Amino acid sequence: MIHRILLFIFFLNISFLYSQEQEPTISLRIEENSIEHAIEQIEDVTDYRFYYLKEWLPKNTISGNYTEMKVSEILGDILKNTVINFYILDKSSIILTQNKRVYDSLPNTFFGRKEGGLNTGIAQTTVDTNPILFMDDNGGGKNTKIETVFIGKETIQDQRKAFILSGYVTNKTDEQPISNLSIISSKNGATTDDLGFYELPLPRGENLLQTRSLGIENQKKRVIIYNDGRLDFVLDESVERLNEVIVEADAAKNVEEALTGTNQIDAEESKNIPLVLGERNILKVATALPGISTAGEGATGFNVRGGKTDQNLILLDNAVIYNPTHFFGIFQALNPFTTKNVTIYTGSIPAEYGGRLSSVFDITTKDGNVDKFAGEASIGPVTGNLALEIPVIKGKSALMLGGRGTYSDWILRSLDEESLKNSKASFYDVVAKYNHKINDKNELRLNGYYSRDQFSITSDSLYGYNNQLFSAEWNHEINRKNTGSLILTHSGYDFDIGYDGPNSTDFDFGFGINETGIKLKMRYLHSEAHKFTYGLSSKLYNVSPGGISPKGAESNIIPVDIAKEKGLESGIFISDNFKVSDRLLFDIGLRYSMFQALGEASPRVYEPGMPKNEETVLDTLQFKGGETVKSYGGLEPRVSARYFLTPDFSVKASYNRAYQYIHTLSNNTTASPIDTWKLSDLNIKPQSADQYSLGLFKNFKENTYEVSLEGYYKNINDILDFKTGAQLLLNENIETEVLQGLGKTYGLEFLIRKNEGKLNGWLAYTYARSYIKLDSDFSEEQVNGGDYFASNYDKPHDLSVVANYKLTRRFSFSANFVYQTGRPVTYPLGSYRFQNADYVFYSDRNKFRIPDYYRLDLSFNMEGNHKIKKFAHSFWNLSIYNVLGRNNPYSVFFVTNNGEVKAYQSSIFSIPIPTITYNFKF
């Protein structure tokens, strides 16, 4: 330190003598050249010589025209956007420094004096009140291997004592952003957002930073900060990642965040859970979590906290996917090799999401590897899968391609059973994603997806349905506090039925819906206490309610084509993640949604207060294309709060309101891929719901164990149901067949999860009730006398246990057990004859229940060896689905024959199903 002070005083004496002379002026012209070249030009026209290291100078080019200006003014301009400072030592020497600057004087307090100048006998120039930092090359003289990084450019004008460090954190393996990673200094801390961005205030001078996140290496850096600046982290995955729980969250996210009812499932780490026919299924794993279930083993869709299947917003890279399953829900329609994760919101739904009442499933696909070619493939008993990651511009962009299909048709044709040879059951899906990092502030992602199913249950009917979607996302960093995303999407869903029957009744039937949307999402990091998200969105719906046409020249079917529907749904939103104190955190959001039913349309007007039927029609209105038929809208407040009782024990509460302007039309007990969708219009109101949640969240033994207990209550208005015996398909006046009433759901969810150790997994139990009330002054619009009755998906008790036991790093056993109360069903109570005809008398709707459901699955998993240098890494899975051979009923139905009512039960998998699947990654 002493030798540095003496050197400083030596420079001070020389600089004082030089300051007495006049600084020369020069003229200089720089045209698209480097800073180094500009320095050489100054040396050519003056007596100055510059002292610096070439690697300090940036590689970009500069331009400027300077006429009779001082050298110091020219240097100030050409170096203003760099971290390089300069110091004119004497009439022949200019010293360049990186980040820091050379001082003309010591602070008044340097030798312990509070007032007065330096005791050196030298005239004193302007005194900087900031401390002078004397740093050794290793950063503060500490004997350590920690990397030292200099940030910002020190200026005499900036008297701040603290600066803002910002940047991005990415995964070294796949270059994906790492969210919810903690960056901690001795005095402050920050957490990365969903895009891996962080912002951290640091005091001037030396700071020691550490990164912390579950499954990611911890890294330390010594940061010497002189001004606001940027520091990016590229981190490796930690070895411990292999031992993580199947459904992984951040170390203490469940306790720390304000949102209630959230879960995240990692696609890769769901591979050990035994599932039917060896297919990884991230959506089936979701049903093992509290509050999420299905109506049956072969039912599509999800019932979340007592809601209908149409009340879930399922997004694939921001675009809506209407039916994310293959073959009646047995397989997911998502490629497990291209899927990164799914974030599920069942309680506190962020204000940016709208249009559904119960939940959001936000599914994200992987970005392609921009550095090297990679892939993954699997071969199973009925399906094959391949995914490739192809670099396009090394280090910047990549293309990911995924394809998956079944060869079950070939298996069915090979069977000796004659009744199955004419059956058909096939599906495939393809996905393509292009990700491109344009520069440090801009990145682009393009995603396309298509899936197709065809199946024939009987020899005369062929069913088919498909999903298609496209999304484009542009992410832009405006500055260190503001980032934004512009998202364009298009989604479509279609199904068709081809019928070849006797008596000239062959027909083709089809239905379709598509939507095109745009969304602008902005993020503003105001401070550590306030983090804002705001924006707006809009989507245009086009619905083809259905049409039937004769198939072949001999068909007698009369063509019918229901008029198309169109609607515009828009929303504006803002939310604030507000940190009141270290204990109290709020997430406050407000959304305003709007919907316009658009023409061309010819809606009926019915007599007010009367049932909607042919006798109560007053008028038929006419609207041209694009005209507004009916408008709806409303405020949707979203508020949640977290309070720390102890550092690892929190209580959370939330309130959530939502509107839904689109509905499914189905009188089936379970959801079906041929259910149709209906927009709100003049006669069908949008649904709305208010949900209240309260929960306790506790972690034990450094987040090894997680325990949560959460209760909820939800009121639903204008829930859509159907009249007894309703005809929903090909009905031009569908409002005469449906009813709108009240719904209420409530429940208690318990989860205990072990994240580490040889034995890991979770136990989830849900007690939940779901009721509907369809009341009216008219008996034809009443169900069950106008009283509340159990919905089709009311299952009071739901228990799931998922366990994984690691014998070694390569071998493990997994088990999955499910128990659910049987769903409600309407039974016939007897039969009677009236006017020479047989009739069946049924009970109140959903008064009885089918038998309870339970199932045990087991699997043995074998990883390939962990050698670093090998072509591919393999993974074998041997699983047995429904080990107990439980004949779980999918549905119970009744047939009347000669006045006698007979009950029948259908099951999907009534025997144990063993499978073996081989996966390899290269």
From TrEMBL:
Matches recorded under Pfam families: CarbopepD_reg_2, Plug, TonB_dep_Rec_b-barrel
A GO term for molecular function: siderophore uptake transmembrane transporter activity
Localisation per UniProt entry: Cell outer membrane
Transmembrane stretches, start-end: none
Protein's membrane topology: Multi-pass membrane protein
Domain TonB-dependent receptor-like beta-barrel: start-end pairs: 424-882
Residue span, TonB-dependent receptor plug domain: 278-356
Family label: Belongs to the TonB-dependent receptor family.
PANTHER family listed in its UniProt record: HEMOGLOBIN AND HEMOGLOBIN-HAPTOGLOBIN-BINDING PROTEIN 1-RELATED, TONB-DEPENDENT OUTER MEMBRANE RECEPTOR
The protein, known as: Outer membrane receptor proteins, mostly Fe transport
Taxonomic source organism: Pricia antarctica
